[in-house]
Amino acid sequence: MPLYEYYCSDCRSKFELLVSHKHADDVVCTKCHSENVRRMLSLFAARAGNSEGDFDDYAPSMGSCACGDGGCGCH
Ligand SMILES: [Zn+2]
Predict the structure, then answer these.
(1) What is the pLDDT of residue 40?
(2) How remote is the CA of residue 4 from the centroid of ligand 1, in Å?
(3) What per-residue confidence (pLDDT) applies to 60?
(4) What element of type H or E holds 18?
């Protein structure tokens, strides 16, 4: 069974549940038992979206300054 992550908009808590696809949209909050929950991206999908590629795109801008001694004021 897949592991789903849910968010309860009533008590604003996140929880994970192992549910079958058939019941993936038929869950209640584990804390307040509200039916007002929505399914979020799985943890695996969230990690995949935050890939190292995104970090590599950002890293060059961190080291773009070549002054070396802080003379440009960017340090
Ligand atoms: Zn709740």
Answers:
(1) 86
(2) 15
(3) 47
(4) strand 14-18
- For residue 27, being part of any structural domain is answered with yes
Residue 36 CA to ligand 1 center (angstroms) comes to 8
Helices (H), 1-75: 43-49, 52-62
In a domain, 69, yes or no: no
- Specify the residue for token string 């696809």: 21
**CB 65, CB 75: distance < 8 Å:** yes
CATH code for the domain of 27: 2.20.28
Residues of the chain with pLDDT under 70: 41-71, 73-75
In the reported structure, the alpha carbon of residue 48 is separated from the centroid of ligand 1 by a whole-number distance in angstroms of: 27
Domain that holds residue 10: 1-45
Residue 30 inside a domain? The answer is yes
Is residue 13, in this structure, part of any structural domain at all?
Answer: yes
What domain count does the chain have?
Answer: 1
